[in-house]
Every structure is written in C-alpha cells, then in structure tokens.
Please model this.
Amino acid sequence: MTDADRESWSGPEARLPDEKRLLSLEQQLILVDRVKSLEARLAQVSEGRHLSPTAQLDAEQQLIAMRASLPWRVGRVITIPLRVLQRLRRRPNN
Amino acid sequence: MTRGPTLSVWLDATDLARADIPAAVRSLVEQGIPQSDILCLVAPDAEGWPRAGSSVRFVPLTGGILDRLVSEATGDWILWMDASARLAPGALAVIERELSRFDIDLVYGDSDLDGARIRRPAFSPVRLRSQDYLGDLRGFRVEAIKQAGAFPRDAAGAYSLHLSLRLGLGAERVLRIPQVLTLSDQSVVPATEAGRTVVSRFLVGQGISADVTLEGGRLRVRYVVPSDPLVSIIIPTRGGRAIIAGRDSVLVVDAVRGLLERSTYSAVEIIVVADDETPQSVIDQLVAVAGDRVRLVRWSEEFNFSAKINRGAIFASGEYLVLLNDDVDVISADWIESLLGLASQPNVGLVGGLLLFEDGTVQHGGHLYTAGWAGHAAFGWAPDRDDYLGSMGVDREVSGVTAACAMIPTDTFWEVGGLSLDYSGNYNDVDLSLKVAATGRSILWTPHSRLHHFESQTRVAAVEPAELETLRAHWGTRLLADPFWPEP
Model:
C-alpha cells in the first residue's frame, strides 16, 4: 500500500487530557487576538498622539517628501478646477 | 518669547591621524558657533596639534577632566562631534529647531559620505551594544550627562559611546533627525577595545551577564542565559519533499535530524504539527530520528498556518517557543543560544535570525515594512554584501521577523493571542510582529543564528488580497516607512 492510499497517519500522538481543554485554549488565543486587532484598528485612527519624537519627525519628513513629489504636484494641478468649485460652494451667498 | 537651547561643541580629536581640526572648526563657525564655545579634546600624549589659530580651547583628555568640564558646562546641550567630520550646511539650524521642539536627552542624525547619504536607523539600544552606529555627531543634554554619573577613566575614544548607552536607556528620549548633519569620512565608528570595555561595563551595570568580544570592527555580545530553559520548537508540516543539494529530501525529517544532530543547545522539545495527509513513512522516519524528543500533534482541518502554530503552542511546555518551517536546515550550531540570549533580555518580545537560500544568498535579514508592503530586508543579497552601516553583521532592532524561524517567550505569545487566524497563509508573522511591538517590546534580529531556508527563490507567493487588505486595515500606518531599515 502506498502512502497516498492511507487516510491518515498513526503514531505516538500528543494529546491533552481533555478535548474541551484544547478547544478552550484555541478559543482563548482567538479572543485575545480579536482584542489585539481591535486595539490595532483603534490605534490607526488615533495615530499621531502616541508617536515618539523620532517617529513624529519621520512622518513630517515623509509628508514633505510626498508634497515635493511629481505625482503629488501633478495631482494638485489636475484637481485645481475641482478645488476652485469647492471653494466657491463654501463661500457664503451674501 | 522662549529662548532656544544653548549649545557648546566638543570636538573629539583623540584620533589625531584622522582629525581635520581646522576644517571641522570652520564648518562650525560658518554656521554661527563662536570659537569660544568650541572645545577640542585631544589625547594626553598628543603633541603639536593644529591650533587653528583661534580661541578654540584644547583640552588633553586626562582622567577626570570630562567630569570637570561637564560640571562647568553652562549650556543646555553638548554637541559631540568627531574632528574628522564637518558640520553639514544648514545642520546647526535643524538641530537647534528640533532640540527646541522635543523633550529629549540624546540626538543624532544622518551623514554624507562622499556624496552618499548614510541613513541611520531609529534608536536601537541593542544594536548600540554591538556597533556605535550613531555617527560622528550626537548631542547630549547636559543635565542628563550629569545624572548619568562619572565618566570612566579608561574609555578614551569611546566616551561618546559610553554616554549614548547611558542616555539611551530612555529610548523615548532619543531623537534621530532624518537629515544630513555631517560630512563624514566614515559611515560608522569601528569598534575598539575601549568600546568593548565600555559595553561590558554598561551590561554589568544593567545586571546583564554577557561575554563581549571584539570581532572584525564590531562587538559580539554573547548573552549568558542563567539556566537552560526548555525551548519548544513548533514545526507545522504536510510531510513534503524537495530536491535539496541534488538529493531527495523529506523536509521535516531532515530539518528535525539536522537540528538534533547539529544544535548545541539540548533543552529542547520538538512539536511537529502534521496534517492528516502527512505520509505514514514520514511519521515513521520522524519517530525513528527523534524518538521521544518529538511530540506529534494532529491537524485534521483546512489549511491554516496560523492555526497549526497555535495548536502546537498549546502542546508546548517550554518557556520559549521557536516557530520553525519544515524546510530549514541548521547552519550555526549555536543558533538556539543566539536567539535565546536575546529573547531572554528584558523587554524583548521576538527574535529572528539570518536565513539563507540554498545558494547562500539572503532570504531573510529581518522584515522590512515600507510603502504599504511587507517584505524581507536584504532579500537576495550575496552572502558577503552589506549596507553602509554593516547591518548584516550585528544584532539589531527590526520591525519584524519571519515565522520561518522566530523565538518568542511563551508568555508573550499568549499575551498577544498567538498567530491571527485572519492570516491563514501570509502575513501572519507580520501581524504577530506588529502585535508584539504594540506591547512595547523590542523585536530583534541576529546574524549569529543562521539557517538555510529552502524556500524557492523564484516562487511567487500566492498572496490573498484579503489578507493584505486586513493587514493594512490593522497596521497601515506601520507599513509606510521602516524606522530600522531606512531607505532612500
């Protein structure tokens, strides 16, 4: 018989005393991970408040580099009409 | 109106052969620093140093003089500059501006070496123990120097390293300015015997037991792990085969055989999480090779790498876990000790090593997160290639490490919820790294733990768009620019 014919292997398998214990521990990991994921998402929206000085300076430099980049400047030129329209709409009627 | 920080400059000219004092002084004076605020430190036995024809004060570095100079210092900051460097145009204004914005104790920045910008990583205190990578200009807040205590008497040439180690204990109070501050004649200060002494003494002061040796211009720190904690190595497998070095290899069997035969660390248990469809012959070979040192755990469900690792962790009884792929082979016999030495340091959450392809090129030199993507630093580099700073030869802080080989304290694994099931195939290690980093712990990479990773160099990873989308939703801002592997 070839290996492929077998349905599953057999051997000295490690087991927990209770199958429920395995499920409970796996659930524990899943739940903690869920909390960590939510914390990460929350941190995304409150980013900036907790930056270290180095991270803050890096972010500022990235922003400066982005604004100096060709794609950014081209984008600004292309969107001029739209931005003018927006400004006009915001202007009070009187 | 608040006044800006007041600065004085200490020019380190103890290496008189490299120093160009007139040029260094000129670069400072041109940006508005009066000569009277410049102090030039020279070796006590040095003679005939150039006086620069000025009111610069020359001070022979004799025992206790630095303590006296610091106690007399009236300014807020001391800029410590190597006399072989020149202040880059406009750098003083940048430094003054940033010092007035942030409440910090130590500042450093990039430099220019023959027209090439040397970008330095964010503050990396563990790396600093192996390599004084902060460059030839750094600023120290005078009050912080005073609080750091007396200067050692036998650290000539390594006083700035001594101060950086001491003031760097508060990593949040260190600022890297991502701009060129100096024009330099070298990218990084080579390690010296004085530096070795400084690092050894610093570690003793921190209660860290380690053996520090000088190796090829760098320091190798071998951390002593007091007891031999049990390390659980978790290997998920399907019992696959591959041609390795022209030979048909049953990957997991050869991986387990290699690590049992060639690892010098013995307190290990191996947990193999095997899919149902793993060939019986593979199981039999594993038992024959490892006997009761291997624990077999069954996986009967749909493929999910993360879930398989998590299940292995549930069966682990070790104090530390090693997540290991089945297509690896040990190169350095002390690979576990190298990981463990770092993983057992305070506040370290995850440690990875150097992984090489079969042909010796680099597969993993730490994770690299940039432009919304996650990849590997130094991927595909020839074995002897390095960057300007020599990053491939030193223990260092990284943004993340691959789960192909990573050690994590078991407590930390459980604290962050293990590997996320949101990432069944890809990015689970990126997510794990970022979860660990979010707890405030460091992630480290070491070149001293070396393994082959027989992943195909040409394989295009089947990335699930949903996994990448989830990763970006969770950690998008962390993936924009890598603080520890700065790129142009």
